[in-house]
Design a protein that fits this description.
It is a single chain. The protein is α/β, with parallel strands linked by helices and about 375 residues long. It has ten helices and 23 strands. The strands form seven sheets. The chain has a five-stranded parallel beta sheet with strand order 5-2-1-9-20, with helices on one face. It has a four-stranded mixed beta sheet with strand order 8-7-6-19, with no helix packed on it. The chain is globular. It starts with 5 loop residues before the first strand and ends with a helix. The relative contact order is 0.15. Bound molecules: flavin-adenine dinucleotide.
Length: about 375
């Protein structure tokens, strides 16, 4: 007699979706369970090293074939999840995928020049070549938003075009709504924010601080500063990146997301709004205060164990909590090109201490974790 298998559907082939799918397929008995991964692309896109792509065009440092990092025990379904409820997914192909447990790992939408597989599917080369060409041709590039990603991209441009920036042949500007670069969200201490700000402004990057930039409706190359249309700057290339934009497929589950659009989860990754308890979410799509890969090992481990407990014991399962940065500053390092970076480490009662720049340069800036990329998905 054939046993009816239970299905775990994982949506999104990012760092978290792929590694959780791999872990589950390794730990669950394949005669009773199946793990299905819904992916939009045949490739995975490793974001931490993507800030260098417009100047390096070395796409192998950020893109890997999915087949090289996914276990054969995971069934991949190439499609896009359009909507879901508590028992099935509706795919773009109009197929319906029933599940017993759903794990949402759909990440964020990232604007140009980073992009995501959600935007370019398999055709990363056309997308990234276009971004690199636009950057190469532009004389004045303006970034609206001086957060982590834009600051790192500008650091890369500064390293590549330092002579042209010094001579005034090429200009780069950042418009940022605070007195220092990086978000004023409590995760970054003042010292690291000041160091990043001073380094970029001291090396020829024009900063418009405490300013809000809006692209003019009449002229796509004009940015209006604040509400006064007479205060504006012109740039031949404008990138607007003002933070993380969670990517949640349509659903009609009340209070699924918070008012910023993030999926509301508990520290055990279970979605608050799902009464059945069978929907989990992980990574950038969640309302965790900290988003990033520093807690990857712990998060993947805890989610895997919790899903297995839930599959075996149902709603009575005791689920474990992960370790996440719910208060205070976090460890962090900002890379500003292959040789320069600034970092911080939180210390109880002291706030943060700076990580020496040569340590950040060696540990992060040189390779942007490229050597760890494959393991981030596989392990
Ligand atoms: C430029 C940049 C640099 C960064 N640098 C660092 C760093 O130095 N250190 C650090 O800790 N963190 C860094 N981060 C953050 C870190 O990369 C992210 O937190 C992490 O990659 C999030 O992984 P994820 O799996 O949640 O999402 P993603 O990697 O974004 O994966 C989401 C996946 O879901 C897919 N998807 C979305 N919607 C659907 C759908 N409807 N159907 C099917 N599939 C779908 C997407 O195509 C994508 O493959 C950086 C982020 C960026 C953008």
């Amino acid at each position: 007699m054939e046993i009816e298998k239970k299905t775990i559907a994982v949506v999104g082939a990012g760092v978290f979706g792929v590694s959780v799918a791999n872990h589950l397929s390794r730990e669950l008995d394949a005669t009773s369970y199946r793990v299905k991964l819904v992916t939009l692309s045949d490739y995975v896109y490793f974001l931490p090293s993507a800030v260098r792509l417009t100047v390096s065009r070395d796409y192998s440092s950020s893109i890997l074939p999915l087949k090289d990092v996914i276990d054969i025990g995971v069934e991949t379904i190439k499609d896009k999840v359009v909507s879901f409820n508590t028992s099935n997914l509706i795919l773009e192909s109009e197929a319906v995928l029933d599940f017993d447990v759903l794990i949402l790992a759909t990440g964020s939408k990232w604007p140009d020049p980073i992009g995501s597989t959600f935007a370019f599917g398999d055709d990363y080369k056309t997308y990234l070549d276009k971004q690199a060409s636009r950057v190469q041709e532009a004389e004045h590039i303006a970034f609206i938003g001086g957060g982590f990603v834009n600051s790192e991209i500008v650091g890369e441009l500064l390293f590549k075009y330092q002579d042209e920036i010094k001579s005034g042949k090429r200009r780069i500007s950042i418009i940022h709504n605070s007195d220092k670069l990086l978000p004023a969200n409590g995760l970054y201490g003042d010292t690291v924010r000041s160091k990043v700000t001073d380094y970029l402004s001291g090396n020829g990057i024009k900063l418009y601080l405490n300013a809000r930039g809006t692209i003019s409706d009449d002229d796509p190359n004009q940015i209006i500063l604040g509400d006064d249309a007479s205060k504006h700057i012109r740039a031949d290339l404008i990138y607007r990146g003002v933070g993380i934009a969670p990517n949640v497929p349509t659903n009609h589950i009340a209070d699924f997301c918070d008012d910023r659009g993030f999926v509301q989860v508990q520290t055990n990754f279970q979605v608050n709004a799902c009464k059945e308890g069978n929907i989990f979410a992980i990574g950038d799509v969640t309302n965790f205060r900290y988003h990033g890969i520093m807690k990857r090992d712990n998060w993947v481990d805890v989610l895997t164990k919790n899903v297995i407990s839930f599959m075996k014991e149902g709603a009575n399962a005791k689920l474990a909590s992960c370790s996440c940065y719910e208060i205070g500053e976090t460890p962090g390092a900002v890379s500003l090109g292959p040789k320069t970076g600034f970092g911080q480490f939180p210390v109880p009662f002291l706030g943060t201490v700076s990580i020496p720049s040569f340590v950040v340069a060696k540990a992060k800036c040189k390779s942007l974790f490229r050597e760890k990329m494959e393991d981030m998905y596989k392990k």
